[in-house]
Amino acid sequence: MISSCYCKSPYFNFSPVLFTIFLLAAILLPARPAQAVVWSTLFTAQDVRDHLSTEQGRREALAFCRKMGVSKVYIESFRDGYQAEEATLKAARDFFLQAGLKVSGCVTTVGVSKTSSGGRMWVCYTNRPTQERLEAIFRFTAALFDEIMIDDFFCTDCQCSECVAAKGSLSWDQFREKQMLQISRERIMGPAHAVNPNVKVIIKFPQWYDRFQERGYVPDKEAAIFDRIWVGTELRDPASNKWGNKQQYEGYFIYRWLTDVGGSKTGGGWFDPFGTTPTLYLDQPLTTILAGAPEAFLFHYGALTSADYRAQAEALAPKRVQYEKLATFVSGWGGIATYKPVSSDPGDEGYILDEIGMLAIPEAPTAHFPEGARAAILTTQALGDAELVPKLLRLLAAGGTAFISQPLAHRLNGDPQLPTPAPLDLEKGQYLKTMEVGGGKLVVFSDALPHLTHVDGQNRVEQLTPELRTALEDFRRKVSDFTVTSLDAPPRVAVYPLGGRVAVVNYTELPVAIHLTGLAGMAHKLKQLYALDGATLAPDGAILRLPPHAALVVE
Ligand SMILES: [Zn+2]
Fold first, then answer.
1. H-type alpha helices, 291-370
2. Ligand 1 mean position to 42 CA, how many Å?
């Protein structure tokens, strides 16, 4: 039995009585029905041209779908300045429908008339011909499909003279927010529904969630405008500087965070083979399914059948049944409430939240301040909430614990609203500091701890000094008051509390043997429910052994 400290209801208070009822309910209630995973894929506009214009090509594409378990396809009408032929789109749509697959459309807003001054990935939405062309593309697509996905290039960094004039006195962030919402309503949703009143339009968000506000992605307001949202759960080789040394936990963080934003509108996760090896590619279905995505979207047919990336598809095909089984254990996501307001700037802490998750410290990502939670993780991103300090004081007054990153502590230092007995800043060489404030606890942690998960370009991680090892263990010990963690896991092992169960994934390149702690006193002996890639629970019911990239679910 695993406890999770975070409940979204503002009225839910973890009194001992309620906590006991919660534990009993989790034991006695039947498990959630098995979740099914839908596998889907995309035929880009170029794939439509190159692979779906002949009967032979369509049959080969269907064979790929059968092999990959794909039961839904997205057939794209526009990408990179190219619009697919209407006759080919119709023939492909009808072919897959006849074969029993679900079929939707897709649009990628790259190469629509005027390019952004920032480069060819994005376009200038101030430009009138661009707006008109965009509208025409959505009218064309809505006439063919009842659902349209928008790939994650629907943003801009244009600073051309037209944009400068249109911006007026607004900041670029404000202007882009206003502009993208207006374009969404007036050039996409309005025209698409005028052509096809039944059409549902999905906005897919990129994985770079800490920079949305710079380029006009506004997930809460866009989730209100669009019919559904989709989540980029793409992962890359963490050693790749080119891809930004991404942490695998990012796919989990963004999916859970956007689910908090989009609620029931949240659909599947989307990933691709770029920047991966076959082994790293498989971290994506694993992480996407652990995050709870009901659909795993495999971008895209042309890449996954190419010489460059065929190996990734070949690696997934024989294993998909194991991921489908994993999905049946996934529900009841727990962890420590981790607060990132929508449109919040990360300061110097971009994607720090992904790193914290890679320390075996489970996060429950939220875009709303976790009122009533017993504990919260707060970083510079939380300053996006102008009411942060009063809210933090309420959390502390209720006896709560706030885990505060070093840069945030520095920013809060000396805030007259938050009187502390000593400066919040860490001293030189100090990695962790706990302070009693306002009836609760502030735990300040050093940057050096999350950065232990960083993989450099030579595939190396920082060695744990005795001081860092002790600090990491202390950090986790404090976390274990609120959720499950591991005191002895090396950095780059992630722990996912799932109701009464817990999944563990070893994202390191070496085998690990670890213990779990923070089981709310209920763990007499763990039981193995599910194992992937040779992971095992030792007969003592306490030691979890995981080869690299393996996963284990226990209860
Ligand atoms: Zn412009």
1. 301-304, 310-316, 320-327, 352-357
2. 30
